[in-house]
Amino acid sequence: MTLLFIVVLIAIFGYFAMKIYQHDNTTFYKLTGYSYLDVWTNKKIRTTHKLVSVLDEVKGPHKIVVNVQLPTNEALQPIDAVLIHETGIYVINMLEMSGWINGREQDMQWTQLLHKKKSNLFNNPIHETEKLTLALQGQLPEVSEEVFESMVLFSNDCSFQNIELFSEHVDVMKSSSIKKWTKNLQQQQRLSETDIQTIYAALEGMMQVKNSASNVKKAVLSSN
Question: SS3 of 109, please?
Answer without folding.
Answer: strand
